[in-house]
Here is the input.
Amino acid sequence: MSTFRNRREFLALAGAAGTAGALALTGCGAGTGGGAAEGKGAPKRGGQFRALFTGGGEQETIDPHAEALAIDMARTKAVFDRLVDLDATMAPVPRLAEKWESDPEATVWRFTLREALFHDGKKLTPEDVLFSFGRILDPKATNHFAQGLLSVIDLKKSRGVGKNTVEIALNRPSAELPALLGTLGTAIVSARYRDPAKAVGTGAFRLKSFQAGRSFVAERFDDHWDGGAYVDELRILSADADARGNALRGGEAEYGYEMTPTFARTAQADKSVRIIAAKGSTAHAIVMKCDQEPFDNPDVTLALKLLADREKLVEVVLAGRGVVGNDMFGKGYQYYPADIPQRKRDVAEARALLKKAGVLNKPLSIYTSSVANGFVEAATLFAEQAADAGLRVKVTTGSSETYFKDQLTKGVMGSHRSGAMTIPTYINDRLLTTSAFNASGWRRKDFDAAFAKARSTTDEAERTRLYGDLQRTVHEEGGLLMWGHPDWLNAVSSRVRGVEQAPPNTLDSARFDKVWLA
Here is the structure.
């Protein structure tokens, strides 16, 4: 990984940005740390904005359909647009598509496109949309993130209708198509797009230069359909966590992605930096493999859920920067059944269930890793909590480089986390019999069938009820001990203006089209 580890190396590529600039940073949250309160007044144009991310070296890409790292996603949001975005609750809202509608069976969808220009001056057309979907679904492109999600599209039966409407035919009913088009890897590219290094999109910024693992430079696109950005130039750079913090404090950057709770604490007294906290926007869990003993017995999974002191886990592991979880994904998102009572700790009931199942004296182990902040700490603390009921749990650690792959085959318990995605996407990717990332080994044909019914139901109220029932089943019987939802901590210079309240939707973080600098 090629990241800047000292000020001299950073300044060599960051450039001497001597003037204050303007920049939009939507979806990144309200300031909760130190620094002056956000000022009032009209946004200003001009200047340079420097945003720092964890780098990925030569693995970084500017291909919007192969985005895998946070730094890749930030570049995609700058240069390209999707048909649909997701709001704070992960519900679909218009972007390049002004509106949409489906037939009664949700097998044919029509999207009306807005008037938008590509950076080469050409107008957005239905052909560009169809080309984009064809590129995403190209079977030769094994690194296209949304390929599986968009496999529901029947390209041969899809077509353009007039100058501004695209008709998308599906190979099975899906009421979730608009939300799928708002996920990662679904950006719309020009039908003339061939070379990823020559990125031409409809985004608020136009590419100037890109060097994997080093830097990205883009300029404001004045003909953007939404008015364009405020800043003249955007630079997205690779830097490790310490370098990000030092650059922000030294006035050498305006944005730092994914800062630590320790940095957030120290920033409380720092007038040069403001913390942007997306409250409870991610999910941390301990997963129990329901296809292996002893977790094939729902009494055992329930017992361990009852053993978790969630408040203590949030306090210790997350330094209080988060909220407790209730053994379901998507707290605050569309389709989340908020009426389910919060599960409380009950050591006596947990012990009774474990005794009934005959596992009190059988040792268990949690497979974890330092791959994510808090994994090892949460596993260790939970093992101590389980001991209160007489349960012996051993913590074992694996390689951070291969942990998420290894976890699928190693151990009967493991550490798990997820960023923002819609609840249907989470279920599709992690809780179906055929899910590639089913870390909890949750495989039930009746659950699969119920999910298929939910996603094909066009009535929103009924669809919400069906997804709620699926979540209730996971809550009671599944292998997710989802103990907490950490805050997503980013930071900005105190000069940054136009920062909105951060939703739980971290997919919408690090957008730089509406912020400016005082």
User: Anything to note?
Assistant: The CA atoms of residues 88 and 505 lie 5 Å apart. Residues 1-39 have pLDDT under 50 and may be disordered. The chain has 14 helices and 22 strands.
